[in-house]
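The freezer alarm interrupted the setup, so I double-checked each line after restarting. Inputs confirmed:
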Amino acid sequence: MHLHEVVQIVLYLFFLLALTPVLGLFMAKVFNGGHTWLTPLLRPLEKAIYRLAGIDENTEMRWSTYVWALLIFNFIGFVVVFVMQMIQDKLPLNPQKLPGVSMVLAFNTAVSFMTNTNWQSYAGETSLSYFTQMLGLTVQNFLSAATGVAVLLALTRGLTRRSLQTIGNFWVDLVRTTLYVLLPLAFILAILLLGQGVVQTFSPSLHIQTLESHTQIIPLGPAASQIAIKQMGTNGGGFFNANSSYPLENPTPLSNFFQMLSLLLIPAALTYTYGIMVNSRRQGWVIFAAMMVLFLMGLMVSLWAEYGYNPVTGIAGSMEGKEVRFGVTNSVLWATATTAASNGSVNAMHDSLSPLAGLVAMFNIMLGEVIFGGVGAGLYGMLIFVIITVFIAGLMVGRTPEYLGKKIEAFEVKMSMLAVIAPSLVILVFSAIACVTDAGLSSLGNKGPHGLSEILYAFSSAGGNNGSAFAGLNANTTFYNIMLGIAMLIGRFAVIVPVLAIAGSMANKKNAPFSAGTFQTDNATFVVLLVAIVIIVGGLTFFPALSLGPIVEHLLMLAGHVF
Amino acid sequence: MRHLFSALRLFLIMTVLTGIIYPLIITGIGQIVFPRQANGSIITVDGKIKGSELVGQKFISSRYFWGRPSAIDYNPMPSGATNFGPTSVGLPNALQQCRKQFEDLDWRAVPSDMLFASGSGVDPHLSPDAARLQINRIAHVRGFRVEQRQKIVDLMEHLIETPQWGIFGEPRVNVFLLNVALDQIK
Amino acid sequence: MDSIKKSPKLFDQAIILRALVDTFVKLDPRWQIKNPVMFVVFLGAILTTATVIHELTGGKSDMFNIQITFWLWLTALFANFAEAVAEGRGKAQAESLRKMRTKTVARRFVNGQEEKISATELKVGDIVVCEANDVIPGDGEVIEGIASVDESAITGESAPVIRESGGDRNAVTSGTRVLSDKIIIRITSEPGNTFLDRMIALVEGAKRRKTPNEVALTILLGALTIIFLLVVVSLLPFDIYSEKAAGMMKSHSSLTLPVLVALLVCLAPTTIGGLLSAIGISGMDRLIRHNVLAVSGRAVEAAGDIDVLLLDKTGTITLGNRMAMEFVPAPEVTEERLADAAQLASLADETPEGRSIVVLAKRDFGLRGRNIKELGARFVPFSAQTQMSGVDIPAMDGRSARSIRKGSLEAIRAYLIANGAENQVSSMSMHVTQMIGTDIAWSGGTPLVVIENLEILGLIQLKDVVKGGIKERFEQLRAMGIRTVMITGDNQLTAASIAAEAGVDDFIAQATPETKLQRIREEQAQGRLIAMIGDGTNDAPALAQADVGVAMNTGTQAAREAGNMVDLDSNPTKLIEIVEIGKQLLMTRGALTTFSIANDVAKYFAILPALFATLYAVSGANGPLAALNIMKLASPQSAVLSAVIFNALIIIALIPLALRGIAYRPRGANAILLRNVMIYGIGGLIVPFLGIKVIDILVIALKLA
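Predicted 3D structure, all chains:
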């Protein structure tokens, strides 16, 4: 590594740290209904939206109502994107005259964008019209991200309210998040990306004769607007197949830096927002710290592995699957960030990462997408681990465990474990099925243990709603489109529903005051415990599978084996 | 039911807002403020569109600088990579290929980016070292004299893009721009 | 008769024997399914047994599989044993209690006629009579008479107690014996539901329900077991893939059913799963050894969560008796004269208060005791009407007659008025104010006025004496995050002074049952959990309202019904121990859970390399994953066997810890956490590495694998 590469990482961490309280404070004001500099501009629009939609912004919902509203809204999104893809040949803005998408692929993509996974079984430039990308995918990029934030807000309210039945209004949370947070940020990022060379046009693909007189088709489209929210909303589904490694999606190192930063920006800032909303900034920083520790641990291992020597090629720091303008460091930093956040966009091919760097990427997802994680989803996922940590460690101080003064009892433990088991079940069982079926095995792009890694990665990515891939696996088959689609649904809603249930039950509880006998959750000890629990739960669940995938591949690679 | 109608109406409003108004505003700004970038950073030679500055092209002739290996033969419909895993037999095979290209060199001296395929399949860049390796071949094939060869060297060094602001990214040279300029050398 | 106090040792031979039998009785699936973790072990053992039987009938005998099966059954049995031992201790106690529930005959009054019926036929509201040597046939209230009762059968206390009608000492318990006199009792509990019956059920653990935290923990452990089940189930397809990818023959697989089951059992949190109920039972047991009966485990657990302790001043914080601290003479009266008069008035006063005056007089002025009889003195004892005591000494040997009285300000005032000395009253008030200002009350004393022949001599300062060590105890409680509130009938000033001296956080002066109840509600509204101790009927509402209400055994039936614990010693300080037991119970569960989960790391490093030792091997040698065998275990078989054996033995090894509870010192949450994480978290990581390695060496030495 060169000095300028180290500086890039330090700068990246610095900006992330510096922007966290700035954006966090802004979001706290927005979510608490406070006045921000955007209020004069957007408040009339917000009111108009409620009026047009027939929503009373002052009515609060019980948790069960909140769940229904969320499910209905998401289901509408799914249906619209599903149908839109299949009839895109009859819709406008299709200059390439692309045909309608097949039903299984349409199902996979619709689920994928509804669940904030944004797994790409599709290849944007060859299968989706501009209409679908704009009115289908871009819209879902906003709404699925806003859904994640809404769930987090509901949980936060649950943790802070005392003896109340309601946890907020889903519509209001959704609209505020979209209007005040996602749209302005996406707007800024889109302009920055435009300046760097990301395309934004409704012209069809360019057919050209190259300098050497070969024919080349350069796909274009309204990309900048979609890529901006794809990064900000931890969606990650690219406008183009090769995602952010494709030069027109991510043209320069600077555009790369903006995209990487926006990838973790909202999830990181939400920890600060959370701190404000629970009246203890320390609680927010503790979670930020735990996430940062996990992130840095992964980054270190990845960098070490990726710059390491591969006896198979006789080369250290391979450029396979990477772009020259980004180099190894930016590729590894992106890979770590995109898997830590449940973003899933890539600027280098994860399939070609060294085994241990691939392991880190996979493990980041397997941990439950809680290292910053998805917008809203990462924090509520981490709060599930907080509850589990508080329960186990809290018993050890000799009291019924409490978090923020709320007792953690059988119901919360049950729901938390449900939220942990569901994605694990998807990853392990679905991967196991793929391993012993021809339909599962025939899509593999690599043989040997790496093939198992491809399967594991695919279902981790779907179950964790990440969306990145070991792309050697051909996922556009009936088997994978359906299995991954189901995996995404379980990974999303089998977590959201328990989280909202916890929100409801917590809101109803009394708030025990803090005393010297209370287990503290705002100090360094808790950071260590939280990190340990996240790693241990993830490690115990996935160590056997990983040992047959990346770990054995690493050992075989050191021995110079190829498959 | 009340929620269903609210949901439908809200979904419609949000679609208009984020799926129509927002992309149209961005398109407007792009076309007005950054028209070159928004339309693909097109390079024209003698009035003809010869490609995008940002999208790599296939160069097989020995007269040109070769770009990186590409899994899609530089035809991005769709873009993509080899996706060879680190223990894939594809990697040593690819090396075998490259060894043929650089028979006269110790292939271990060839930078990694020249040996392995890019992520997008249309990486427009090479590391400066990978470009430098090719200067002798090009000068030889083009029958350049010493001072013309020096012009290639100067040209290349001139076109090297250092990290943005001295920090971001890696030093690199755009193969397409390099080859366009190469043709200008008299 | 054995008293409860003489609780059996941790491992009594008889208990162990009985537990061994129960260990096998508990293999009943209906019993096993109550504990999801151990149920998985149970099913696993059955599966491997079936495999072994299948192999044996097929003519094969695989010693390895047989050994695995053997140890899996042992794992299940060890957990049963832990539970049985914990229960056995209670059962032994129940046995001795049951002995006294022999056929008691009740003498029931019906329409003024006495009839003899069996105690089991008694109904609520029946009136029975008990005389000396009768066993009281049922729980009830004394409605007439007074008697001394031997309650040692229940309390273990040999000194008889007084039971009388009216007041707070009217409750009698079935199974206790009247020693003297005759009492008439109204029965207040159905037969089979007497205090004794409930006590037997409790110590036996017959109606033991899981406590809230135990339920939550069981869910956590069950969920972890499900995760590990997923891990093990999915491992087989992953292994099939890997073997195909490696190009090996399928028959090379070391992933047999017994090995998979062994892996699952090792990963599942069997240590805590196996000991969980033993921990809960022994928590109750520890309470019983402190002579406290809890109506439910829930109450014990709640004790650990207590934020505020309401403590009665008398008997808990102070010794219960006020002591004379100082003589404060009136103007123009010498201190010695005051002391002399006070001593005379107290010589025949056998109360601790009176004795303390004599002691003070001797200490300060060397006044020796005099024979009151020689003086011809007549002692005037303390009575409820007069609220004072004293002595009348007739005129003798030229000395004039002396009439000395001592009593509270109010009592003396009334006495003076009654004797026509109103003039003295106003001067008395003045004197007293002069003498003490507000000094005595401020320092926690109560003034006692001494008069001789209607002349005020001065005051004796009486003061509550705070128990030794109680202040330190409260400091510990504070460190644990528990606030103490003192309840006293004293006035504000006195209460404040004692509160400061004892180091309580707060106090309620001039407390009435209503103010207690009020205070409890206020604290609870703020989310706090409250414990209190009480005895009187008027304490019942507060006892019922408190999260942990400890009734004294000497108290009324109403109080005992209202609380959720009964302290057989009737010792108010017990509340502190109850809280500690509650905390220790939760800590033990948390610590063993942490230990159990931490253990899994080592087990992976033992079993995984063993399973995949030959996978991707180049030529007969070990495959790459053998590198994970960092313990350098001898062979795949020995590794799996060692892990299973360790997993089983650790349950047995930790039974004493589960029964005793982990070491507990009252400290702040952070200190406790750090200590437990170090011992059970870090220790839990390291111990199995060492243990499995040692077992592996033994297994090889004994040629078991």
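Quick read of the result. Chain B has two domains: 2-36, 42-182.
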